[in-house]
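seq:
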Amino acid sequence: MKRDTGQDRSKTAYWRPATRAVRGGTWRSEQGETSEALFLTSGYSYDDAATVAARFAGDLDGMTYSRLQNPTVAMLEERIALLEGAEACRVQSTGMAAMTAALLCQLSAGDHMVSARAAFGSCRWLGDSLLPRFGVDVTVVDARDNAAWEAAIRPNTKVFFFETPANPTMDIADIEAICALARAHGITTVVDNAFCTPALQRPLEFGADVVAYSATKLMEGQGRVLAGAVCGSEAFINDKLLPFQRNTGPNLSPFNAWVVLKGLETLDLRARRQSENALEVGKFVEGRVPVILHPGLESHPQHALARKQMDACGPIFSIVLEGGREQAHAVLDALELIDISNNIGDSRSLMCHPASTTHHNMGPEGREAMGVSEGMLRINIGLEDPADLIEDLDRAFSKAGL
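struct:
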């Protein structure tokens, strides 16, 4: 099996993002296939004992076991690294496997992490419940407050962990300022970029050390498979992440990797069109609800920062209704086109009630501290005609008394 002509990094570096998303990391077998081959194999055979010994010793390139390397998976890793502008990438079985691996591979008992208050429920669970069980202290701060990050630093602080925009409050963290602060103190920054992907935001350009993804979301884009990814320097990926991953095994299957590869081919088109649709729908919604949290609208308190960091507003925003859970559920139940679903990044429009779904396990006090109210709804705008989405929301709002 050989790499496609032009896959040398010195050549692909000149490709623009849309080209990288289609052709980056392509390997071809002797058959000359145009679409990436799907290698459904757990192991590999060798011509002789010396070859396998050399591969396991690291003296000879080549596959040894699909928990460590697989051609289809390796193509996805190369493509994501190219899109991200990272030296290296490793993919994982899910987004949460990626977040967990990115943190556990570098934190030990006695270390301290500073984490953002607003985050996906499972990401908060890592800092609130899992890491403290293993002797890692965690301080939670408002990610929007740069001074809060600095005030939280201790001599043993090893990691800053945050997502921007945050799920589901749409808080925008100042990536450049936070990462500069971390670097000055020898702290590693881990940024969850799942809401944007490198098509819309590239944290490494603002000084981030590590970027983690739920590739299940916008990267794959059509709600078919689970996947995760971690990008960073070769030293971080190979010396810290890889030993953890190879021995704990949160690996991505070749089939799921192949599906995500196909999703990346249209990522740039989908991300930008869905952002345009979300902005059009958001402008309508802004006139119908008490509160809308949409980084693409001037009403968002961090609109200027979002424009600085993001190429487009993204497909996701939230609204807050005065009628609490009852009114929020009434809106969901009145939808005819938009699906009730807790997924995001899908090409279909989806809506959910975070307090009773994605953030249910945080409890009332935890949700209140995060700003996830009973009246909040989060919506992912897809590729449908925005006029149809507006009509659906208009009907649902009217039935719910808005």
